[in-house]
Write a sequence for this structure.
């Protein structure tokens, strides 16, 4: 059976309008990085990039940054806030896509009322970030393998 894909310009306009309405009602502001330097840093003498993280601030802004302390390769520190770490070596498009992927969960976190609910959503976001970058690493490894 052959499926025919039809796309009407009116449908696209209505989808854009719905998306605009949703974005107006949301409490979440996403500060997408414009350059990799916003979340990527390698100090002189370092082989690896500094660890990076996504942060959801109290005012509802989701952003990406790096840990500025040289040589800090441990787990991303959390000081009473919402941070989810990643390596910092990722491409700009990957980081931006991950931010868009976790945005609905971040919105849920902002709306959550109980501490238990917030903790569960934080865990979901951490798993989503980790899974997103692991999937990309696996895809890169597969491409490299098939090049050989």
């Amino acid at each position: 059976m052959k499926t025919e894909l039809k796309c009407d310009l009116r449908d696209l306009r209505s989808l854009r309008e719905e998306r605009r309405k949703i974005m107006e009602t949301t409490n979440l502001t996403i500060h997408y990085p414009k350059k990799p330097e916003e979340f990527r840093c390698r100090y002189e003498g370092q082989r690896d990039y500094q660890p990076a993280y996504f942060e959801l601030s109290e005012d509802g802004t989701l952003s990406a940054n790096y840990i500025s302390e040289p040589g800090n390769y441990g787990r991303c520190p959390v000081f009473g806030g919402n941070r989810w770490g990643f390596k910092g070596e990722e491409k700009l498009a990957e980081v931006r896509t991950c931010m868009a992927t976790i945005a609905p969960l971040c919105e849920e976190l902002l709306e959550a009322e109980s501490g238990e609910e917030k903790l569960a959503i934080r865990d979901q976001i951490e798993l989503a970030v980790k899974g997103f970058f692991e999937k990309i690493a696996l895809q890169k490894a597969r491409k490299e393998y098939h090049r050989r």
User: Anything to note?
Assistant: Residues 43 and 70 are 7 Å apart (CA to CA). The two ends are 38 Å apart (CA to CA). The chain has three helices and four strands.
